[in-house]
Amino acid sequence: MNTKHYLSITLLASVLWFGCKKDRKIETPVVPESNQFVTTLIEYVPAPGQFINLSLGSMEAAKSILGKEGLVSLGAWGGYIVLGFDHTVLNRKDLADLIIKGNASPNFAEPGIVWVMKDDNKNGKADDTWYEIAGSEFGKTGYLRNYEVTYTRPVPSTGDVTWKDNQGNTGVVSANTFHSQSYYPDWLSNTELTLKGSVLPSTNINMTNPAMITSTPFASGYADNTVDGDKIDIAKAVDKDGKTVALSGIDFIKIQTGIQANMNAVGELSTEISSVTDLSLVK
Question: What is the pTM of this model?
Answer without folding.
Answer: 0.91
